[in-house]
Design brief:
The complex is a heterodimer.
Chain A lengths: L2 H4 L4 H5 L8 H8 L2 H16 L19 E2 L17 E4 L6 E3 H14 L3 E4 L6 E4 L6 H10 L15 E2 L13 H11 L1 H5 L9 E4 L8 H4 L2 E7 L4 E2 L1 H9 L4 H5 L8 E3 L4 E3 L9 H5 L4 E2 L4 E7 L13 E8 L3 H19 L6 H8 L1 H8 L21 H4 L1
Parallel strand pairs in A: 6-7, 7-8
Antiparallel strand pairs in A: 1-2, 2-5, 4-5, 8-13, 9-12, 10-11, 13-14
Helix pairs in contact in A: 3-4, 5-6
Chain B lengths: L21 H6 L3 E8 L2 E6 L4 E7 L4 E3 H15 L2 E4 L5 E5 L5 H10 L31 H16 L9 E4 L13 E6 L11 H4 L2 H6 L6 E6 L2 E6 L9 H5 L12 E6 L14 E8 L6 H17 L6 H8 L1 H8 L27
Parallel strand pairs in B: 7-8
Antiparallel strand pairs in B: 1-2, 2-3, 3-6, 5-6, 8-11, 9-10, 11-12
Helix pairs in contact in B: 4-8
Classes of the chains: A alpha+beta, B alpha+beta.
The structure holds protoporphyrin IX containing FE (2 copies) and iron/sulfur cluster (4 copies).
């Protein structure tokens, strides 16, 4: 009707429709409903004024769940009434982000009926993000989603949506079934995911090998990274083919090996597997010739987080090796002990990584019943401020 | 009277097996090796001899349902309705017929979705909400990503860098994403302390939580006009915005002083060297929408200097560790300032404690 008159003029954003990279402005315009026109209008205002126009926070959700929805309100609702409410729903994605066209269409139909028609595919934790709807649309959206077999993901002080690399579905390096583990963990902790029980958020990420394609070591409180215990599987004929094809095995493989545990005499590649730290470099360079060993499993690492409050952390080694078949049970046992300790001693909004920094790794290990292991450190302490335990001084 | 329909909860996501193409189901866990056929095209070969072809295309991450339906149509036309998204928010089509690859690529390119992002390329930029949806952003995410990738698109569609190069954007230092561990990271920052709204603070915030939220202990309780509130010791505040996250009465957006910092040298993979954090390259660039030319130029410059100087397989962080930080600043022409020197807890670990110096 009078859509054309209502359309905000967006000269700054229009600039971002030019150029070879797909344009988010085009995406917003394509959706062509009044909500998206107001979103564009408000965004144009942000571009003019160089500041955001969303009010702080907003507690909204669906009955029975304590998370999954991020409430959002415009701070200029009189100008852009259609985005006065603009809440996000996090929808738990299937492991590995695989879909059928039919499943995607079902999601699109639901979101067309109840929201702005805009999404993020995907949020950085992994969820399908439905971007923008009103409070009274939340329950109807949730009802249709669950009827279609989809549930909400996590937000708040809970288990967040676990995610994983593509793993055994399409990667020869996967050392365990990442998609299955991710799905099993998600199902096992539905209660902890939907009803925030913790001092703060807790994320799981599952990577099939040390290439860590979901960046689990940087973005998960509990990082599960596939590895192996025996020898790298080696196909000598294929090594020779790489050499014949022009790969400089000495320079590009042996000299790049962090432990210098490889030797190449021009004909035969030898790996001293006892010294190999399973960094993946040689395997990455010669995928046809080298593969992870057959005794597969994963390293469990704990504690990574972004800077707030006490500085960024990478996860550190908690259990050096768990056989693939025992992973799910070991993880469940382990996190139940971690959560118990964190619940009791964690401060409000203290991530597990910060708790470990505060109480010390050794005390943390005691608390969850693990023995110290030299694989847990990059070096022993270099200061003499050692707390001896009472019984040893007696 | 009919009973109300039962409320369905706690079902979790649909099981992934429902969405796997038959060729993946048949060969699950049996992949033998993979080859890169062209930028954006991978071929995985199974022990059974089956071959799976993946075609990867760029996505702006923020997608309308129209585009998702278009991807669904492409999946129907070329791969029996199967597709997936990657951990960097690209879209991947999964084919078992290599004869369809070129047609699919052409169709994607014609529709404006470049094909690439594999191997030694710059893949998609992991990014956040920005002015599109978040209240604590110091900059926009989508606009910067679009501007930077327009300039670097040839590195998405080709694989001619020394190694993979991962770029990430976060619009504030909550860093919802991969900014602290990327080869190049673009991070929104503030440069002014919060403006305290004493009139509403006691009504909307919990003071102890607020005080505990500050990394530098800059927030103290204070009574203002007879009401409980707080004060900020400005010399101790480094504008992180965490107090605003927990308390709406502490806003700190400021168009003149908000802007961008650039970070380099992080990685998450264990290949060759251990995972690394990103480190500060440029403390501040202005917010200059819609195209952020200063930010684009800075990123392009770092990419260029790196690609000329790094050895094969060297990620940005490995290259810098080899040549040393002084050389990095010299080669890139980036000014080194007092702001580069760490002064947060245990900062001494980043000072040079040797005479290993290149003049
Ligand atoms: C204030 C409003 C905030 C908004 C709108 C917001 C938005 C988001 C969204 C949409 C995601 C992706 C979620 C998903 O995929 O399910 C995300 C992830 C994340 N958020 Fe936030 N966030 C906010 C606050 C915070 C705060 C306070 C922190 C830290 C103290 C934080 C740290 C993170 C991190 C580290 C991730 C990424 C984790 C990963 O890589 O998996 N965010 N955020
Ligand atoms: C069989 C070989 C591999 C497969 C199937 C694979 C799979 C993937 C996929 C699907 C993604 C998302 C990519 C995108 O969205 O563009 C990804 C990301 C990634 N890959 Fe790989 N990858 C392989 C090899 C490698 C190698 C050799 C390395 C390291 C040298 C590596 C390190 C990474 C990293 C660091 C990410 C980014 C994670 C993030 O920041 O989100 N991958 N990988
Ligand atoms: S993390 Fe390893 S197993 Fe998983 S997709 Fe990446 S390379 Fe493959
Ligand atoms: S995996 Fe890494 S450490 Fe092991 S042999 Fe290969 S390059 Fe060396
Ligand atoms: S990085 Fe900061 S501003 Fe951006 S979405 Fe996350 S919390 Fe919001
Ligand atoms: S902005 Fe950060 S440093 Fe400044 S008072 Fe708030 S929490 Fe403290």
């Amino acid at each position: 009707m009078d859509n054309d008159e209502k359309k905000s003029k967006t000269p700054l954003l229009d600039e971002l429709e030019k150029g070879p990279w797909p344009s988010f402005v085009t995406e917003i315009k394509k959706t062509n409903n009044e909500t998206c026109q107001d979103l564009l209008g408000q965004l144009e205002l942000s571009y003019e004024e160089r500041k955001g126009h969303w009010k702080h926070g907003g507690l909204v959700g669906v009955m029975g769940y304590g998370g999954g929805v991020i409430g959002r309100y415009s701070d200029v609702p009189e100008k852009f009434p259609k985005v006065a409410h603009f809440h996000t729903l996090r929808v738990n994605h299937p492991s590995g982000w695989f879909y059928t066209s039919q499943a995607l269409r079902t999601l699109c139909d639901i979101w067309e009926r109840h929201g702005s028609g805009l999404t993020n595919m995907h949020g950085s934790t992994g969820d399908i993000v439905f971007l923008g709807t009103k409070t009274d649309e939340l329950e109807p959206t949730f009802k249709e989603l669950t009827e279609a077999g989809f549930d909400l993901g996590g937000s708040g002080s809970c288990v967040r949506t676990p995610s994983c690399c593509v793993g055994e579905a399409r990667c020869e390096w996967a050392c365990y079934d990442t998609m299955k583990l991710c799905n099993d963990l998600t199902q096992a902790y539905q209660d902890e995911l939907h009803r925030p029980p913790f001092p703060y958020k807790f994320k799981f990420k599952c990577a099939g090998c040390p290439n860590d394609c979901v960046a689990s070591i940087a973005r998960a409180d509990l990082s599960v990274i596939g590895t192996w215990k025996d020898q790298i599987q080696q196909d000598d004929a294929a090594v020779t083919e790489y050499a014949a094809a022009g790969l400089d095995i000495q320079k590009d493989v042996c000299e790049r090996c962090p432990t210098r545990c490889m030797a190449w005499d021009g004909k035969k590649l030898t790996i001293d597997n006892g010294e190999c730290v399973r960094c993946m470099h040689c395997i990455n360079v010669m995928p046809k010739a080298l593969r992870p060993g057959k005794e597969k499993g994963a390293t469990i690492l704990i504690g990574s987080k972004a800077p707030i409050v006490q500085g960024a952390l990478l996860s550190s080694v908690l259990v050096p090796f768990v056989p693939a078949a025992e992973l799910l049970d070991t993880l469940k046992e382990l996190v139940s002990r971690v959560w118990e300790f964190w619940d009791e001693y964690g401060k409000n909004r203290e991530r597990v990584g910060e708790l470990i920094q505060r109480v010390g790794m050794a005390n943390f290990l005691d608390a969850i019943g693990l023995d110290p292991d030299p694989a847990m450190i990059s070096a022993p302490r270099d200061n003499p401020y050692i707390f001896f335990q009472k019984k040893e001084g007696e | 009277m009919t009973a109300p329909a039962k409320r369905i909860t706690d079902i979790g996501p649909p099981h992934y097996e429902k969405f796997l193409p038959p060729i993946i189901k048949r060969n699950y866990g049996q992949w033998k090796y993979h080859e890169s056929l062209a930028p954006g095209v991978l071929c995985h070969v199974s022990e059974t001899g089956d071959k799976l072809y993946s075609v990867r295309a760029a996505s702006p991450r923020l997608l309308s349902i129209k585009t998702i339906r278009y991807f669904a149509d492409l999946a129907d036309k070329y791969c029996d309705g199967y597709l997936r998204f990657t951990s960097r928010n690209n879209v991947e089509f999964l084919l078992d017929d290599p004869g369809k690859i070129e047609l699919l690529k052409q169709e994607l390119r014609d529709a404006g979705y470049p094909v690439g992002g594999t191997n030694n390329a710059i893949s998609n930029i992991v990014h956040t909400q920005g002015w599109v949806h978040c209240h604590s952003s110091a900059t926009d995410a989508s606009g910067i990503v679009k501007s930077v990738m327009d300039a670097l698109c040839d590195h998405f569609t080709q694989q001619n860098l020394p190694a993979k190069l991962r770029i990430a954007v976060a619009c504030c230092l909550n860093m919802c994403g991969a900014v602290h561990c990327s080869d190049i990271a673009i991070l929104g920052i503030h440069r002014k302390p919060p403006k305290i709204k004493h009139d509403v603070l006691p009504k909307v915030c919990e003071v102890p939580t607020l005080i505990a939220s500050c990394p530098t202990g800059a927030i103290r309780p204070k009574t203002v006009d007879g009401k409980q509130s707080v004060e900020v010791v400005e010399e101790q505040c480094m504008y992180c915005g965490n107090c605003y996250t927990v308390c709406p009465a502490m806003p700190l957006n400021d168009p003149e002083n908000d802007g961008i910092s650039i970070w380099v040298g992080g990685k998450v993979s264990n290949a060759r060297t251990a995972p690394k954090f990103t480190k500060l390259a440029i403390p501040f660039l202005p917010n200059n929408p819609p195209r952020w030319p200063e930010v684009v130029d800075a990123v392009v410059n770092i990419v260029n200097v790196y690609s000329q100087g790094a050895k094969k397989f060297e990620r940005v962080g490995e290259w810098i560790e080899r040549i040393g930080w002084p050389r990095f600043f010299q080669l890139t022409g980036i000014e080194f300032t007092r702001y580069h020197i760490d002064d947060f807890k245990n900062a001494g670990q980043t000072y040079a404690r040797s005479t290993h110096i290149r003049f």
